[in-house]
Amino acid sequence: EQEIPGLTDDQRPRRLGPKRASHIRKLFALEKKDDVRKFVVRREVKKTTKAPKIQRLITPNMLQRKRYYKSIIRKRMVLGQKMKEDYHKRVVEYRQEQKEARAAEVAKKKKEKK
User: Of 28, 13, 14, 26, whose CA–CA distance to 38 is shortest?
Assistant: First the structure.
């Protein structure tokens, strides 16, 4: 249980920080309205710094896409309801035609019987 010199005796910071937006928020105790991109753990590489691509980041583009998909679903539902109504109207018409044709046939048979 003794520490190994040069290996376990010194504390070194973690090389990489969190990549997911919610984990970054948790690490820095941020609120939902705070911009996560400003708090990403960056690391020095030669003369520049590198940062990970943040996953699950809510962007205006993503919200727009979500609205678009929902509108497509809504349009599909409306179209389906309209097609259903048209179909039911057509069924009613067809049944009425069949009823009239049958009534005419019955009347014709009655007339021939007399």
Answer: 28
Judged by DSSP in three states, 20 sits in strand
Which H, E and C letters describe 32-90, residue by residue? CCCCHHHHCCCEEECCEEECCCCECCCCHHHHHHHHHHHHHHHHHHHHHHHHHHHHHHH
CB 30 within 8 A of CB 24: yes
Distance CA 38, CA 76 (A): 40
Give the model's confidence band at 5: pLDDT under 50 very low, under 70 low, under 90 confident, else very high: confident
Within 8 A by CB and 6+ apart from 61, the residues are none
Map tokens 């009823």 to a residue.
99
- To the question of pTM greater than 0.70 for the whole model, the response is no
For 48-90, the pLDDT digits (tens) are 999 999 999 999 999 999 999 999 999 999 999 999 999 999 9
Cα–Cα distance measured from residue 106 to residue 13, given in angstroms and rounded to the nearest whole number: 95
Place of tokens 């699950």: 56
